[in-house]
């Protein structure tokens, strides 16, 4: 008989704790093994039956998914932020809890498995890391001047041409040396950013989807590459609302006491749901892409549409959010269909 088995793995840097349950929830085995590819595969291959495996999203999740997936029926990488933990917490308890939640379908999956865009994904991470490091150094540089009451608004303080002028504003030699090292670090990072950007653009050109995405208003080659690198495939999203949530553009509303008893009958109350802003669990790079695309489109191809919303009394930030959500919706729809952007169709939507 082909027995169903549910395997929960509590993965750590050196060791992994594993719990194996059957379809009735009985624990069949428990093991503590090294977090090494050969050890993990040996354990998996030593289990008979139809195997379903789960572990939490983390640093090693992508590597572990690719390692285990060919040897089991399914692998579910779960979102640890959506697991409610009660009572004692320990590695063995966590492993069994994961296996039990997998058996009872109580886990929220984190997407893994699109290998066609794996190179773009890695290069997107590299590009994002270089950009974040560059921003961090810029913030430190400005903080150095602001801490001494020196106004450094704008981006002039970053340029190489006026650095002697900026250095002269600093009184102490040690502070000047600190500023000089920050400028050197910024120069090095800017070169690395350019290299990372070129590598990303070169790899992204190999994918037909990028040609579709970069034709959408506000989305150029880099933003198109980042969308491909972060999302991977449009088919993981059933609807635009799911894509909005993943991109940090979904509005969160809350309501309580939704039903009431009127003349002995249960009816829905007329209480309005309270809007609590945008969702907080999202992909930050993807949100930055669509926010940036909205600003570009609002100043370019969709300027009349943006101006019309503002003229009708909508706050500019909300108007930009509307444009960002529209760009995200168009992105998902065209990406799924494999169609190019058509401004005439969008003009009809704007008019409606």
Describe the secondary-structure layout.
Elements lengths: L3 E8 L3 E8 L4 E8 L2 H9 L4 E7 L4 H8 L5 E5 L12 H13 L14 H29 L16 H6 L4 H32 L3 H6 L7 H11 L8 H7 L4 E4 L4 E4 L2 E4 L5 E5 L5 H15 L4 H9 L4 H22 L5 H9 L1
Parallel strand pairs: 1-4, 4-5
Antiparallel strand pairs: 1-2, 2-3, 6-9, 7-8
Helix pairs in contact: 4-6, 4-8, 6-8, 8-10, 9-12, 10-12
TL;DR of this structure?
This protein is α/β, with parallel strands linked by helices.
Q: What can you see in these coordinates?
A:
It is a single chain. The protein is an alpha/beta fold and 352 residues long. It has three domains: 4-103, Nucleotidyltransferase, domain 5 (2-Layer Sandwich), CATH 3.30.420.60; 118-204; 239-268 and 283-351, no CATH class. 50% of the residues lie in helices and 15% in strands. The chain has 13 helices and nine strands. Strands 3-2-1-4-5 form a five-stranded mixed beta sheet. It has a two-stranded antiparallel ribbon with strand order 6-9. It has a two-stranded antiparallel sheet with strand order 7-8. α6 (173-204) crosses α8 (221-231) and α10 packs across α12. The chain is globular and about 75 Å long. The model has no long low-confidence stretch (mean pLDDT 90).
CATH topology label of the largest domain: Nucleotidyltransferase, domain 5
The helix content is 40-55%
The gyration radius over C-alpha positions equals 26 Å
Number of helices: 13
Q: What shape does the CA trace take? A: globular
- CATH homologous superfamily of the largest domain? eRF1 domain 2
Proper CATH architecture of the largest domain: 2-Layer Sandwich
Give the terminus-to-terminus CA distance: 60 Å
